[in-house]
């Protein structure tokens, strides 16, 4: 099997940003993403069990490195000053490169 190098952008942020981020992904022609509820502790406090409007989400999307870096920078500039937001990039290898 041949694996292809791609970059995964992971975003942990406030759930209130979900719709705005999805619009941004679509505007940047990102082909897919996964969003899950996230719990944890950081500089903006601790998120525990009972989720409500105050919950956090974790988003993962895979694309090429240039697009992932550009998107992360755009997200940071647009939302980073006003919302709890952590992002990181990971190099991943995928089987079906055409999906990303």
UniProtKB/TrEMBL annotation:
Q: Which InterPro entries match?
A: N-reg_PII (IPR002187), N-reg_PII-like_a/b (IPR011322), N-reg_PII/ATP_PRibTrfase_C (IPR015867)
Output the GO biological process annotations, alphabetical, semicolon-separated.
regulation of nitrogen utilization
Q: Which Pfam families match?
A: P-II (PF00543)
> Which GO molecular function terms does the record list?
enzyme regulator activity
From the Swiss-Prot or TrEMBL record, give the protein name. Answer: Transcriptional regulator
């Amino acid at each position: 099997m041949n694996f292809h190098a791609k970059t995964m952008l992971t975003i942990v942020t406030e759930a209130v940003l979900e719709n705005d981020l999805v619009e941004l992904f679509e505007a940047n022609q990102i082909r897919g993403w996964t969003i899950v509820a996230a719990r944890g502790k950081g500089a903006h406090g601790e998120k525990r069990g009972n989720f409500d409007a105050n919950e956090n989400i974790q988003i993962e999307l895979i694309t090429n490195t240039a697009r992932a870096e550009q998107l992360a920078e755009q997200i940071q500039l647009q939302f980073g000053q006003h919302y709890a937001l952590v992002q990181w990039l990971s190099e991943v290898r995928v089987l079906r490169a055409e999906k990303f």
